[in-house]
Design goal:
Elements (H helix, E strand, L loop, with lengths): L3 H30 L5 H19 L7 H24 L10 H6 L3 H9 L6 H14 L3 H21 L2 H26 L6 H24 L8 H7 L5 H9 L1 H21 L3 H10 L26 H21 L4 H4 L1 H4 L7 H10 L18 H17 L6 H17 L10 H19 L10 H4 L2
Helix pairs in contact: 1-2, 1-3, 3-5, 3-6, 5-7, 5-9, 6-7, 7-8, 8-9, 11-12, 12-13, 12-18, 12-20, 13-18, 14-17, 18-19, 19-20
C-alpha cells in the first residue's frame, strides 16, 4: 500500500501536469488567433476539460506517470518553439511554414517515446502530443504526417533499439511526414517543390541531433532511463550490486546466472533483452536484508534448522517486500522494480509448507504463498522461468544431461500448472523453444571439465 503523503504528492504532480499542458495548449491557440485576451478563457476551459477526463484516461497511461508527463511536456515545448519560429520564418520557407514542425520536431517523438517507455503502449501519449500539434497547426496534412511518421519511426527503432535503427527510424519516418506534407504543398506552390528534398535532408540531420541531445538531457532526470542509462545500472559500481557481491555472494552468483539465461531467452523470444538482463540482476535484492537465511548463502549449519516452518516461510517470503523497499530507496525505475514481486508470482513455498503440514494437516496455504502479482510481461515471466529452473538444477548433485533436461521440463510444467504464466500466454512453440534453450545453456555450464592426465611418477623423478 502506498503512503498517503506519497499519494498526495503524486496527485498534486498530476494536477500540475494537467494545468501546464492546458496552459501550453492555450498559448498555442491564442498564438494562432493572434489575440491574447482569450488566453485565460481557453486555459480555464481546457483545464476543466482535462480534469474531467483525467480519471477516464489515466488507466491507459504507462505505469510510470512521471516519465510520461516529462515526455509530453518536453514534446509540447518543442512544438511551441516550432510554432514561434514558423511565425517569424527566419529561413524564408513560406509558403511551406509547416516544414518547421518537420525540422524541429519530426519523428523525434516516436523514437524518444520508445526509448523511455519500453514495454507499454505509447499511442495515447502520441495522441496527446498530436493534439498539441493540432492546436499549433490546425492542418490535417501536418497532423496525419506527424502521426504516421512517428508510428513508422517508433516501430523501426523498437525492433533493434540501437543507433542504426534510430537513424533508420528518422530517415523513414521523416520521409513519410514529408511525403504527406507534399500533398498540401503541391496544391499551393507546385513550382517550389524542388525545395522539398533539401528540407527533408536538413530535417533528417536536425532530428537525429535532437534525438541524441534530448536523450542525454532527459537521462539527467532521476526517473528517466534510456537504454544507455539502464545498462549502467547493473554495473559492479552500483552500490546494490556491490553490496550483494560482498554480503550475499551466493545470491550474486545466482543473479548473474539468471540474468545470462534470461537475456538469451529474451533475444530468442522477441522480448527486451536489456530490460530482462537488468531486471534479473535486481530480482533478488531483498535477500540482502537476511542473506544467511537463503540456501545459496549458507556455508555452515542451516539457520532454518531451529525455526518453525511458518517463521522460515515468512523470512523467505519477506525478501520480496524488502526488495521493493530497497529498490525504491535506491530509486530504481518502476520497470525494474516490477521484476521483484513478479519473478515469484504467487508461488507456494513448498518445502516449509509440507514441513508445516506434518504438524498441522489443516494448515492454510496462504501464509506460505508469495503475495504476487504473477508476471504481467514476457520479460518478468522469462526471469521467473530462468530463476526457477536455475535454482532447481543447482540443487541437483552431479547432474547428468538427462537430469537437467527432466528438471527443466518439470520446472516449466509446474509453473504452467500453477497458472503463473497465464497472463503472458506463451505459445506451445515458444514453450518448446524455452525448454530447448534452457537445457542447452545449462548443459554448457554444468558440463564436466576434461581431466588432463598427470605426469607419470617415473618421468617426474627424472
Amino acid at each position: 500500500m502506498r503512503h498517503p503523503k506519497r499519494n498526495k504528492v503524486d496527485n498534486l504532480a498530476g494536477k500540475g501536469f494537467l494545468f501546464s499542458l492546458s496552459f501550453l495548449w492555450s498559448l498555442l491557440i491564442t498564438f494562432h488567433l493572434g489575440d491574447w485576451k482569450y488566453l485565460p478563457i481557453f486555459w480555464t476551459f481546457l483545464s476543466l476539460t482535462l480534469l474531467y477526463v483525467e480519471k477516464k484516461v489515466i488507466g491507459y497511461l504507462p505505469k510510470n506517470k512521471k516519465t510520461a508527463t516529462t515526455l509530453v511536456l518536453t514534446f509540447s515545448l518543442l512544438i511551441l518553439l516550432a510554432k514561434i519560429i514558423s511565425v517569424y520564418d527566419p529561413f524564408k520557407l513560406k509558403p511551406f511554414n509547416e516544414a518547421y514542425y518537420l525540422l524541429l520536431v519530426g519523428t523525434s517523438v516516436g523514437i524518444l517515446l520508445k526509448t523511455f517507455i519500453r514495454r507499454e503502449n505509447i499511442f495515447l501519449i502520441l495522441l496527446i502530443v498530436a493534439i498539441t500539434l493540432l492546436f499549433a497547426q490546425p492542418d490535417p496534412y501536418t497532423l496525419v504526417g506527424f502521426i504516421l511518421g512517428n508510428v513508422v519511426a517508433a516501430d523501426l527503432y523498437g525492433r533493434r533499439r540501437d543507433t542504426i535503427s534510430e537513424i533508420l527510424g528518422v530517415l523513414a519516418g521523416n520521409i513519410v511526414f514529408a511525403a504527406i506534407l507534399m500533398g498540401k504543398w503541391i496544391q499551393i506552390a507546385p513550382h517550389k517543390l524542388w525545395e522539398l528534398p533539401i528540407i527533408y535532408a536538413i530535417s533528417v540531420f536536425t532530428v537525429i541531433l535532437l534525438v541524441f541531445g534530448l536523450q542525454k538531457f532527459l537521462d539527467l532526470f532521476p526517473h528517466m532511463y534510456s537504454d544507455e542509462k539502464l545498462e549502467k545500472l547493473a554495473n559492479l559500481s552500483n552500490p546494490l550490486i556491490e553490496e550483494m557481491m560482498l554480503r550475499a555472494p551466493g545470491t550474486y552468483h545466482h543473479s548473474v546466472m539468471v540474468s545470462l539465461l534470461s537475456e538469451t531467452l529474451a533475444r530468442k523470444l522477441g522480448a527486451d533483452p536489456l530490460l530482462t538482463r537488468v531486471g534479473a540482476m535486481f530480482h533478488d535484492i531483498g535477500k540482502l536484508i537476511n542473506p544467511q537465511y537463503f540456501i545459496e548463502n549458507v556455508n555452515g549449519e542451516n539457520p532454518h534448522k531451529n525455526l518453525k516452518p511458518e517463521v522460515s516461510a515468512s523470512i523467505i517470503k519477506n525478501h520480496v517486500g524488502e526488495g521493493i523497499s530497497l529498490a525504491k530507496k535506491y530509486k530504481l525505475p518502476e520497470e525494474i522494480i516490477s521484476f521483484i514481486p513478479e519473478h515469484q508470482g504467487t508461488k507456494l513455498i513448498k518445502y516449509f509448507y509440507y514441513k508445516a503440514l506434518e504438524e498441522n494437516p489443516n494448515l492454510s496455504e496462504e501464509k506460505f504463498r508469495y503475495p504476487g502479482p504473477i508476471p504481467q510481461s514476457r520479460e518478468t515471466a522469462i526471469v521467473m522461468i530462468a530463476d526457477t529452473v536455475e535454482a532447481m538444477v543447482r540443487a541437483l548433485k552431479n547432474p547428468t544431461a538427462e537430469d537437467i533436461k527432466n528438471t527443466v521440463n518439470k520446472a516449466l510444467n509446474l509453473l504452467l500448472e500453477e497458472g503463473q504464466l497465464k497472463k503472458v500466454n506463451f505459445s506451445p512453440e515458444e514453450l518448446e523453444k524455452i525448454k530447448k534453450l534452457l537445457t542447452e545453456l545449462l548443459l554448457s555450464y554444468y558440463h564436466e571439465r576434461i581431466r588432463y592426465p598427470e605426469k607419470p611418477k617415473r618421468v617426474r623423478n627424472v
